[in-house]
Amino acid sequence: MSYKTLKQFILRSEVLKLYRSFLRLSYKVEDKARRKELQYWIRSDFDSNKNHTEEEVIKMAISRGKLSLRELEQTIMIAK
């Protein structure tokens, strides 16, 4: 496995981990309609970023995603 392929694999793993974290968090929303809306937003946001190929762009998107995940987690915990 080449170095470039390894880096792509690691970035892909990070993106999938972030996506799963968002989906897990969405199940903490009790209102089913809001949960579906949130899941739709998560899916569409990840879909809109799936065509990025530059490593730095992907890393920045992951960083923004992690920040959004923390903010969403705080919002959901406050709402309970």
From TrEMBL:
Residues 14-70 form the Complex 1 LYR protein domain. The keyword Transit peptide applies. It is found in: Mitochondrion. Keywords: Mitochondrion, Transit peptide. The keyword Cell membrane does not apply. One of its GO terms (cellular component) is mitochondrion. Its main location: mitochondrion. InterPro entries: Complex1_LYR_dom (IPR008011), Complex1_LYR_LYRM2 (IPR045293). Coiled coil: none annotated. Pfam families: Complex1_LYR (PF05347). Involved in efficient integration of the N-module into mitochondrial respiratory chain complex I. Belongs to the complex I LYR family. This is LYR motif-containing protein 2. It comes from Biomphalaria glabrata. The gene is 106057604.
